[in-house]
Automatic annotation (TrEMBL):
Pfam families: EAL, GGDEF, PAS_9
Molecular function as annotated in GO: cyclic-guanylate-specific phosphodiesterase activity
Transmembrane segments: 291-309
Keyword Transferase: no
E.C. numbers: 3.1.4.52
CDD domains, sorted: EAL, GGDEF, PAS
Keywords noted in UniProt: c-di-GMP, Membrane, Transmembrane, Transmembrane helix
Residue stretches in coiled coil: none
Source species of the chain: Vreelandella azerica
EC class (word): hydrolase
Source taxon at top rank: Bacteria
Occurrences of domain EAL (ranges): 652-900
Domain PAC: 421-473
Protein name, entry field: cyclic-guanylate-specific phosphodiesterase
């Protein structure tokens, strides 16, 4: 019975099923290991693509932060212009200088809310696509700045470009202007080209509309310019619709068809995203190598098992035939067969273990006394030690000496407690090189929980540490001068603010702008310009203390932050000024660059801070404003920030904001000053605009007229003045006593240059029914300095309507007989600055005589303003002037108070 039972259990059928079960289990174990290794390789590839995508995103964010800071600087320049500290021409020159000093900018322009150009380097009209971003900023929805997606100049050119815009508000929070920068496509392309790529890698920059901007793929490739390709994949669409900041997916590239693992990273400052890909065939190379090795091993094992099973079947048949006669022999054969099977199985298992031991990670096995008994080939590749050189020795052979006893004591305590330890360790190779590695140690125990072996895996993380250091360097330091960049400066400035509050000591911030750097850069080339910037950086760093900070914001702008200047403001100011003068002296010394001796100077703006009275942004703005005051003072100068500067900017902005609503609030009024002939009869009046502010009271025209000119409100105000004066002319025409009076209206050059000015005058005359022959437009010599042909055409068109022209303030500008002869003028007006001192100053008397003689020779009328005494009137009469205007006859007054 027992023999039958054994025969049934050891039948060939059951042996076959047992072998199959063993094979299935073995294949399952191999499949599990391969699956685990596959996902491990995929996770490593995903980590690399995430790091690369984050690196490119940080480069782009840093470039956009530089652009945003410069746009805020443009805002400050705009405020200076609106207060009269800068003219429109000077603002345009400064904007052009800013554009050339920033590689991230191609163009920069200030726009009014309706799209008119205030100043800048790009004066062409904007298309409808341009306004997609700008209209969003023009709407009061809390958005202060924004970056566009890819736009196109026109359907014909299809040239992609990018906009970066900043909303400029008045003191009431209303939109006043837009600062718009055209971002440099080549600069963005250069940033993407800085990322090191391996074979099969790719990097791309897209906008949120899935429009491809920049793309590189493969080792050594370079992106040339912005692209105009739409990338439409389901994975990308789902990522854009999600709230995740970054995500990864695997698919075939829509551009070259290669399958890659892609990682997308969304930028916070722009509607863009960075996508970095790694070819699956590259990062799965080791996986495939291991797969084929294990597959061959399994096939060999299956072959051996098949042979053993076949041999067993033969023995089983023989044993069944001889069972009754040779039982003992059959038992011996069975025993040998089982021993042979055990030996073969053990050999196969040892072979599989040996194959698993040869992994891409370095491995070594130590006994219970921590002496190395086995290492793999990767261990030798990483450390340089062959197996025979480390056998019987402890891992202390690899120690670099960087870790103290406390480090290793803590390691062993953790290892004995948890049977596992992992961490970063600095070890030494055989050649003496110290390198970082990631080490994992596991404890092997027997059934009695006694330690029998230690198994350790190690990997070289030198490249990963270098990549982390490179990311830190690019994120916080200027790539040209190696000085801290704006991001690191702000971090240190925030720390300095806390330190001043804690220690009670003043600190200072200096804005340094190089004078005439653009001239040197344009004339000698950007290469020498970069060398000059490096030399300047070394000069600045050599003057200040080690505890101070020298940073570069971009272009030719540097910042110096001084710490611990003293407990009193006076002492801090004295110390800051002394350092600033040293910096100015250092900058004046010639700098040798590639055989060229270059001379440069600087303008320095200084502000002091103490405690938490102001924030980081305010400190930067104060120093920037003081720097522009230093430039205005003649360059190679320094200026401290004065709160009155900021107050003037705020007051100027408030005044401009109120002036925008002056007409709507009916705060403007026309005063009239009479013009009389030699007999004392009133021939006409001059219309003079006055502003009665609801809070400030009467505002001087000398204050609000320049504001209107600079803010381009003069056209609206001038049209109101013209309409009001023509209404008065129409009213006077209905009375015989006043129907012969004329009204002189001053016309601003900016108003006259408007293309619709002639049509505007025609429309006003038609609406009011005023007699055009009684309207006299007073223009100044500044109008005649540009586009004389266009100005003459417009004057002749108005002259055909009956309108007359008077040349105001003659003699104070660039007087030229050429335009007096060519233009349709009716009258010369002698400026009051000459008339006032005509009795005391022979030079003024000679000028007035010349003007009167010139007018007579050209058959023009002549009128003198500023006649304040009878003696003035008599002298002018004796010289041939027969028409007068001034306080001797009347002061400017409302129409109700006129004596006609």
């Amino acid at each position: 019975m027992l023999r039958a039972l054994l025969s049934r259990w050891m039948s060939p059928r059951r042996a076959t099923w047992g072998a199959c079960a063993l094979l299935v289990g073995l294949l399952g174990l191999v499949a599990w290991e391969m699956r685990h290794y596959y996902f491990n390789q995929q996770q490593l590839a995903q980590a690399r693509t995430e790091t690369s995508a984050q690196m490119v995103a940080q480069w782009l964010e840093s470039a956009l932060e530089t652009s945003l800071h410069s746009l805020r600087g443009v805002n400050e320049l705009y405020q200076l212009m609106t207060t009269g500290h800068l003219s429109n021409t000077e603002l345009s020159e400064l904007l052009d200088s800013r554009r050339h000093s920033l590689p991230v900018w191609d163009e920069v322009t200030l726009l009014t809310p309706d799209g008119s150009v205030i100043a800048g380097t790009y004066t062409s009209s904007l298309s409808a696509e341009d306004w997609t971003l700008l209209l969003a900023l023009a709407t009061d929805n809390g958005q202060q700045s924004g970056v566009s997606r890819v736009f196109h100049a026109s359907d014909a050119e299809r040239t992609p470009y990018l906009l970066h815009a900043l909303r400029i508000e008045d003191s009431q929070g209303q939109l006043e202007a837009l600062a718009v920068a055209w971002l440099s496509p080549s600069h963005l392309v250069n940033l993407v080209n800085q990322l090191p790529l391996r074979e099969g890698d790719s990097v791309a920059l897209l906008d949120v509309a899935q429009q491809l901007m920049v793309q590189r793929s493969g080792e050594g490739s370079q992106a040339a310019t912005l692209m105009d390709i739409r990338v439409d994949t389901p994975q990308l669409a789902r990522f854009l619709d999600s709230h995740h900041h970054n995500n990864s997916w695997i698919r075939h590239s829509p551009l070259d068809g290669d399958q890659r693992l892609f990682t997308g990273y969304k930028l916070e400052m722009a509607p863009w995203l960075v996508i970095v890909g790694e070819d699956t065939t590259v990062y799965l190379y080791d996986w495939w190598r291991r797969f084929w090795a294990l597959l061959i091993g399994c096939l060999l094992l299956i072959g051996l098992g098949s042979l053993a099973l076949r041999h067993y079947r033969q023995l089983y048949v023989a044993e069944q035939a001889l069972r009754e006669h040779r039982n003992q022999l059959a038992k011996e054969v069975a025993t040998r067969t089982r021993a042979q099977q055990a030996t073969e199985l053990e050999a196969a298992q040892l072979k599989i273990a040996a194959m698993a031991f040869e992994t891409h990670l370095g491995m070594f096995i130590a006994d219970a006394h921590n002496r190395i008994i086995q290492v793999n080939h990767t261990f030798s590749d990483i450390t340089g030690y062959l197996e025979g050189e480390v056998m019987g020795k402890t891992p202390a052979l690899l120690s670099s000496g960087r870790h103290d006893k406390a480090f290793y004591r803590a390691m062993w305590q953790d290892l004995n407690k948890h049977d596992r330890w992992q961490g970063e360790v600095w070890n030494r190779r055989k050649n003496g090189e110290v390198y970082p590695q990631w080490l994992t140690i596991s404890v092997v125990r027997n059934d009695q929980q006694e330690v029998t072996h230690y198994v350790a895996t190690l990997s070289d993380i030198t490249q990963r540490k270098a990549a982390e250091q490179e990311i830190h360097q690019l994120a916080f330091y200027d790539s040209l001068t190696l000085l801290p960049n704006r991001r690191l400066l702000i971090d240190r400035l925030e720390a300095a603010l806390k330190a001043t509050q804690r220690e009670g000591l003043y600190s200072g911030l200096m804005f340094i702008d190089l004078d005439n750097f653009k001239t040197i850069n344009d004339s000698l080339g950007h290469y020498l310009g970069d060398g000059l910037l490096k030399g300047v950086a070394e000069r600045l760093a050599g003057v200040v203390r080690d505890s101070d900070t020298v940073a570069r914001l971009g272009g030719d702008e540097f910042v110096v932050m001084l710490h611990e200047l003293g407990e009193s403001e006076a002492a801090a100011m004295q110390g800051a000024e002394a350092t600033a003068r040293k910096l100015l002296s250092a900058l004046l010394e010639p700098i040798e660059v590639e055989g060229h001796t270059l001379q440069i100077s600087g303008s320095i703006g200084i502000t002091l801070f103490h405690g938490d009275d102001v924030g980081v942004s305010a400190i930067l703005q104060q120093a920037d404003l003081a720097m522009y005051q230093a430039k205005a003072a003649g360059r190679n100068a320094l200026r401290f920030f004065d709160p009155s500067m900021h107050a003037a900017v705020v007051d100027r902005a408030q005044l401009e904001g109120d002036l925008r609503y002056a007409i709507e609030r009916q705060e403007l009024a026309l005063f009239y000053q009479t013009q009389v002939n030699a007999e004392g009869d009133v021939m006409g009046v001059e219309a003079l605009v006055r502003w009665h502010h609801r809070v400030r009271g009467m505002v001087s025209p000398g204050i609000f007229i320049p504001v209107a000119e600079e803010s381009h409100l003069i056209g609206e105000i001038g049209e109101w003045v013209l309409e009001t004066a023509c209404q008065q002319l129409a009213q006077w025409s209905r009375s015989p006593a006043t129907e012969g009076l004329t009204i002189a209206v001053n016309v601003s050059p900016n108003q006259f240059r408007q293309p619709r000015f002639v049509a505007q005058v025609e429309a006003v005359l038609a609406r009011t029914a005023a007699n055009p022959h009684r309207l006299k437009l007073e223009v100044t010599e500044n109008l005649l300095m540009e586009d004389l042909g266009v100005i003459r055409t417009r004057m002749e068109q108005l002259r055909q309507l009956g309108v007359r022209f008077s040349l105001d303030d003659f003699g104070t500008g660039y007087s030229s007989l050429a335009y007096l002869k060519r233009l349709p003028l009716d009258q010369l007006k002698i400026d009051q600055s000459f008339v006032r001192d005509v009795l005391e100053d022979p030079a003024d008397a000679a000028i007035v005589r010349t003007v009167i003689a010139l007018a007579h020779s050209l058959e023009l009328e002549v009128i003198a303003e500023g006649v304040e005494t009878g003696a003035h009137r008599d002298w002018l009469y004796a010289e041939g002037c027969r028409t007068y205007q001034g306080y001797w006859f009347s002061r400017p007054s409302p129409v109700e108070a006129l004596s006609l």
